[in-house]
Amino acid sequence: MNRSSFFTAVLMAALLSNPLMAQVNMKPPSAKKVPKVLKIHGYELVDNYAWLRDRNEKKAPEIIKYLEDENAYTEAHMGKHKGFVEDLYKEMLGRIKQTDISVPYKLGEYWYFNKTQEGKQYPSYYRSRSKDGADAELLLDQNKMAEGFKYFAISSFEPSDDGMMLAFATDTTGYRQYTLQIKDLKTGKILPDRLERVTSVEWSPDGKFLFYSQEDAVSKRTDKIFKHKIGGKGEDELIFDEKDVYFNVGVGRSRDKKMYFIGSFAKTSAEYHYLPANAVEDGKFSVLAPRREGHEYEADFNNGEFFIRTNKDAENFKVMRVSQADPSEEYWKDFIPHNPEVKIEGINFFKDFAVVSELENGLEYLRVMDMKTRRASARIETPESVYTMGMSFNPEYDTSVIRYGYSSMITPQSTYEFDLRTRKSSLIKQQEIPSGYDKTKYETTRVWAEARDGVKVPISLMMRKGTKLDGKSPMLLYAYGSYGASMTPNFSTSRISLVDRGMIYAITHIRGGSELGERWRQEGRMFKKMNTFNDFVDSSRWLINNKYTSADRLVIQGGSAGGLLMGAVLNQAPDLYKAAIVEVPFVDVMNTMLDETLPLTTEEWIEWGNPNEKKAWDYMIQYSPYENIKAMDYPNMLVEISLNDSQVPYWEGAKYVARLRELKTDDNIILLKTNMGAGHGGSSGRYDRLKETAFTYGYALTQVGITD
């Protein structure tokens, strides 16, 4: 160690041991400026911080040091609250049943379930021939598998039809790049087969081979489907190669196991190919309906017929049916006609029944249909006016009992069994809160804010009963607003730590999501994207004007595309907010969407626009957070990024912070916190994730003066 670095280390240790001194005297790291000029469509943009993405062998150490310096600054600034954050963590941990068993699900001759044990970061995977798990067989011990890794995730947990083999995939970096392996459950041995970058997998009926989808090593676009022979030493057979850069592919199978599907998906169109299970050895996939722009559809198979959820002449989707004998689109007939008031989110088929997932006026419903007796369909009853519900994992086809999940902002996550014949629900498991929880102390409601164009925007709220709406309550306001993703008012044990301290928790369901149907999604994408940001700002103003909170008590939060939301909102109306939590933020929109080599870029052109085209550039540049940072006052911010993030690269948030510090005109604090061993979703271990939540919520609380 040279004298300079030794001095730095000693100084840093001193600062970290005296957080108050660090907060007062420690200056934020200063990113050097290396101007890079972009000339396009008559614009000339100077990017001083483009160098932060250049992690080549020569520059990587400098970038890592900069991110570590930022972490040290963040820790120093938050140092005086370290005890409070630790208390929050212990409080949140006390609400989790650390040793627990998941609700088992039946697949073939076995019941599959997970176990968690106190002190262990990950679950273990089991199965049993009995529902009570009396003869449980350990399949995967994720804790043992994770030894030596900072990050470890499992996906694609797929037993073969006879239950003798298990395909599973692992990621050890957080980059969401999964390696598929196969375990022989008769011998307990891992086979030598290793398939890289796998995103979906399906077994053949006899377990001799499997279909899998693979993503490109650079772009991460899933573009190929292969057929792999178990134990085979030759090259895997390429079944499908998706050339269109707007599309990703995946492989699936109907619940009755009689039909395989390859789905190609873009943001506004789809195409399905199918292959009967009795022809998988040598058969070829056939197209169901050729792709065309604007036609979104999903296909399933049941009792000799294809069922297609489609937006053909149906903005909120309908379900059509057609015989397997000739499934040409000209023969499709309505099964569930279009209802403009109700969006059909999906449909699940069982031997004699179907369950339709519906969305109406911002609320989710499950509708049960009797395919055998033609008894009138009916929705499963819901006990609250603001809630979330959806199908649980139900892999068995020949069943008259299904499971669904239900919760609200004040009702813990609950798993119900529903008898499809008697149409009665029974609670089989509800999330336990060991430290205690009294639902009657809280209330949840939904209000409607008016946006500047007169549109009503729903907001879900959770607060302590008796909270006075006098403008003095602190609030954490969350939103997302992209890709048609609905932000449901679900339950979180961690949020209780906010609400118990007088904070109101709110979700504003802005345009760009699907909470109010397909039009809600379409009104917040492409050349209507500004509605998303305006809705959030107008929701904020409405909440302030109606005394739910005030500008000096309002903290906002969003991640990924919700981080883009935060950046655009803070450029538009920074005076409305005390602080912002900006997580893995997509804020460097123009540079990212011009770079076709980055993950997601080409397929996202249909969501945001392709800035290589002047019309798209002219619209997108209006809201792109990085380019629109101005010389003005901004609120305090905590920006959180991950070094191995494949969805939104770390440098977007790092560049954003550097430019904010360069241009802002106030003395407010901008913090950058980098997870150096994880990806887009943060840490993989449950205790590590909870510590991250405690830190983030600790930041939100201290920003409004709550420190115990």
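[next item in queue]
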Amino acid sequence: MFNLKEEKEKKISFKDVIKYKIDNFMSKGTISLISALFIASLFIIITSSLIITIFQIKPSRYANEMNFYEAFWESLMRTLDPGTMGADEGWGFRFIMLGVTMGGIFIISMLIGIITSGIESKLRELRRGRSKVIEKEHIVILGWSSHIYSMLNELDYLNTENKKYPIVILAEMDKIEMEDNIKIHTRLKNKTRIICRRGNPEDADDLSLISLNTSNSIVILSPEKENPDADVLKILLAITHNINRKKEPYHIIAEIREPKNEDAVKMIGGKETEVIVVGHFISKIFAQTSRQHGLSIILTDLLDHKGNEIYFKVEPMLHRRTFGEILFEFDESSVIGIFKKKKDIMLNPPPDTMYEANDQIIFITTDIKALKLTKHFKKNIDESSIIYQSTYDAKAKNYLILGWNWKGLNILDFIDKFSPKDSNIHIMSSYNEEDLKLDTIADEIKNIKINYKKVDITNKKVFSKIDLSIFHNIIILSYSDKFTLQEADSLTILTLLNLRNIINQKGLTIPITSEILDISNKDIIDIAKSADYVLSDKLVSYLLVQITRNKYLNDIFEEIFSHEGMEIYLKPAEDYVLPEMEVNFYTVLQSALKKGEVAFGYKIEELSFNPAKNYGIIINPKKSAMITFHKGDKIIVIAEN
């Protein structure tokens, strides 16, 4: 039994005190040990030099007295090189130099060992990714997920247009593992510098490693685990409430999974945080694509950095001009709105909306440098070819959903909002009906009736027994909750090929929207002639990267993907201009303007299944070029729902 009184009565020896102090000193690390050895060496050298100088113990080659500096040099040489004492003369001098040499051998040996150990320790620390990053204007990515690779590819591509921004990643992974995975899964043509650090993004001390205060933007990725939004909230708190944070606002993009957590994230992040609700984002794309064949291709074009993008620019030459006039001022760029005084995003505003000082034009083009005022082409509008009435199909729709994952409920919710009354959705998957949790949204569904059947959707015989002709659109959802990325894509592709084969045999034309997780499988989808496919992870990556470039793009895409406000539509070309008549796109633009819409592209129906021709979709066409539309072609417009 431990006796405190007896323990107190024990005397602590001088030896114990010395040992304790030595242990504490040595535990301080490499620099302390090197300093101690340096002091010990200096002590030996100075002591021997003093003895030699005072007692004039010297070799015979010194005719005169040996001063302290000469003695210091002789001792130093023997400390560093034991071979020096081979030429010594006189036993007194030899004896002193032997002591100096032995001390030098001992100290140098220890010094080499300590330096070697220190270097190894530093290398281990660097490999662990625990050193501080000193960068400016870098993009910080916190966390790790499957779509980080497509993000890195997009950011690398973006660096060709602007200054090169380094990318710093902080995640709870081994640094070497992160670097190896990046080398395998990315193709960084512009050799963007990527710096990986290992740490917990929720920990303020770990965040201090990556220089948040000098960063350009911060992206918080939703972890691939149960309840990922809780981790995102903690990371956001660690950033915004850090006592060492900068006074200026950060540019933060936070990715979350559940819509119910959006308000909490916005409350914590405030105005310096843009929130991306992944489930809502992908679900809205599915819902809108299910109504409009080819829409996913348009959205992908606008989101990625290849081809056309959405830009903002101040154009003083247009001061006091109306939006209706500005539309016709650019031959090779498509104006879609006005950003009023850096406050209000106005997509397709009323034609008489005035462009004023401090406003910016919102436009679609291949490059911001391409926005150039051109000759006014409005006089070339062919008024005789314009059609002023429009048709609207408000009939009930029938949808077929094959497969299932966590996004399914959101997709049903948005399809319901977009669909006419008495529409139907038939769901088929290998899930048990109770696993779909359809009862959780039953009270919110107003326009559609949901039917469910448990089947193996990869079995071709299943489709041969279904009357596919009743469906206006088919959606294939990935089994991403059950299988790995490649396994889920394999099942999706197998389902698509079997379904496409049956549809072709029956001579049907049904748009199929497929969810693909890995971009490398896109070529197989192209073979299956599926004009609509949603690359879930890649589209999320595109959106995150777009918002690192301009935070206000989040407002634009939120409105475009919403069931309220302005949206993108593909409408019959015969509602705008006479078919079989050669017109320029200024004429189409004028027709759309009369309907309160903005036209920015078109779709050629006969190319709908030709991937080499982008499935017939042309965005931001040259307005002065002539084109003839045929029945079935579509005009791409931004219009109010």
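[queue empty]
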